[in-house]
Design brief:
The chain has a 6-stranded mixed beta sheet, sandwiched between helices. A 4-stranded antiparallel beta sheet has the order 11-13-9-14, with helices on one face. The chain has a 3-stranded antiparallel beta sheet with strand order 4-5-17. The longest helix has 24 residues. It is of the alpha/beta class. Strand 1 and strand 2 form a beta hairpin. Helix 1 packs antiparallel against helix 3, helix 3 crosses helix 10 and helix 8 crosses helix 10. The mean pLDDT is 96. It is 30% helix and 21% strand. The structure holds N-acetylmethionine (AME) and zinc ion (2 copies). N-acetylmethionine (AME) binds next to loops. GO terms for molecular function: aminoacylase activity; metal ion binding. Its cofactor is Zn(2+). This is N-acyl-aliphatic-L-amino acid amidohydrolase.
Length: 421
């Protein structure tokens, strides 16, 4: 066929998509978009591209519902993947080699080309069964998630195009699960990427004096380290899940006077800097964290200045925690749970995603969003060497999406009770 595979089966088409190396730092977004548009045409979906940034198309596929005025369903996936260190892999990372056990090795096999193709395969099957959706279903294939999504989902979700889709519920990526239950995420922690910098008088390495830059920084590191230990101990004691505490991890340190072979060893430097990746849960205390930064970690009294490379506010536009209700009061939660069970799967308790996905842009709009990648019995290998997904597990996921799409697109309660949905 057009994309170099003669294997025109669900698994074959998955492999074809995996073989399109949409890899950072310079993914070519045209080939996957052409591939997806060709798939859409074959299945009978409307397809178009929206290009908010040149060379970074959002591919939007649509299955019109019979009641197109009802809020729609948006199935999102990102087309880009992180790089792979080829020589550390057992199989070429973009060859989509299937081993004797049916494991398909490729960068993107878990994160998240599986999901992007499973949506399409589920729709292909539903169409073949003669199913007619009541609500309209949109599939968005976005660029640049792996570099923060600003040029991808960020632009798309801020657009008039997106508003016009009238999205009622969104699905995006989750994580694989080594156990038999699928994981599901109803919120995520927000990144604050903090850089702190202090200055102090330089001096001889032998002299004890107050307020050296290095000493200023050590005090901050001490305070940060204590806070980190407190948060981590809540996880270690089993009192909180990983996504429910604030994490802070050092990511760089910068100080010293370089020589051609190392650093000057008897000179106390006049500047010291450090960087931290902080993640705040949706219900985390933003004011407390900000106070710690101002008073303990980067106080002006110790000559600090600070800046953020990233600072996502963990609330939606109305000031509510950017978290989706995942209990029986939310019909979209109930539908999801029941659909998974109907497909023969199990769903774990909802969790907060520890890192950031494109879902944050949707939840910030106050729209219901679940992170869900149907991969059970699968080691978590996103961004890792030898990322793989088993063909059987992939195929099970298609059946799961068939049930979800059926349930979601058929959901049409009485007109007066569905204003919010
Ligand atoms: C600020 S965007 C960063 C996005 C990235 N996402 C993942 C899934 O690793 C992260 O959480 O670091
Ligand atoms: Zn991803
Ligand atoms: Zn990723």
């Amino acid at each position: 066929s057009l994309f170099g595979s003669s294997d025109d089966t669900p698994v074959g088409r998955f492999k074809s998509y995996l073989r399109i190396a949409t890899v950072h730092p310079v993914p070519d977004y045209k080939p996957p978009s052409d591939f997806l548009l060709a798939q859409a045409k074959e299945i009978g979906l409307e397809g178009k591209t929206l290009e908010y940034v040149k060379g970074k198309p959002v591919t939007l596929l649509t299955w019109m519902g019979t009641s197109p005025s009802l809020p729609s369903i948006l199935l999102n996936s990102h087309v880009d993947v992180v790089p792979a260190e080829k020589d550390k892999w057992e199989h070429e990372p973009f060859a989509a080699v299937e081993d004797a056990e049916g494991n398909i090795f490729a960068r993107g096999s878990q994160d998240m080309k599986c999901v992007g193709m499973q949506y399409l395969e589920a729709i292909r099957n539903l169409k073949a069964q003669g199913f007619k959706p009541t609500r309209t279903i949109h599939l968005s294939y976005v660029p640049d998630e792996e570099v923060g999504g600003v040029d991808g989902a960020g632009n798309f979700i801020a657009s008039k195009d997106f508003q016009n889709l009238n999205v009622g519920v969104n699905l995006d990526e989750g994580l694989a699960s080594p156990g038999e239950s699928y994981r599901v995420f109803n919120g995520e922690r927000s990144p604050w990427w903090l850089k702190i910098k202090t200055t102090g008088a330089p001096g001889h390495g032998s002299k004890l004096y107050d307020d050296s830059a290095f000493e200023n920084l050590l005090k901050s590191l001490d305070s940060i380290s204590k806070y980190r230990a407190e948060q981590f101990s809540l996880v270690k004691k089993g009192l909180r899940a990983e996504g429910e505490v604030t994490s802070i991890n050092g990511v760089f340190l910068k100080a010293g006077t370089p020589t051609p072979t190392g650093f000057v060893m008897n000179l106390q430097p006049s500047e010291a800097e450090a960087g931290f990746d902080i993640r705040i849960p949706p219900l985390g205390d933003v004011d407390d964290l900000q106070r710690r930064i101002d008073e303990d970690w980067a106080p002006a009294s110790r000559n600090f200045t600070y800046s953020f490379e990233e600072k996502v506010y963990p609330r939606d536009k109305s000031g509510r925690p950017a978290v989706t209700t995942a209990d029986d009061s939310n019909p979209w939660w109930v539908l999801l749970k029941n659909a998974v069970v109907k497909a023969g799967g199990k769903l774990s308790k909802p969790e907060i995603f520890p890192a950031a996905t494109d879902s944050r842009y949707v939840r910030q709009e106050g729209i219901i969003a679940f992170g869900f990648s149907p991969m059970a019995n699968t080691p978590i290998l996103l961004h890792d060497h030898n990322e793989f997904l088993n063909a059987k597990e992939y195929t099970k996921g298609i059946a799961v999406y068939e049930e979800i799409i059926k349930a979601y697109s058929s959901y049409a309660p009485d007109v007066d009770s569905q204003a919010e949905l």
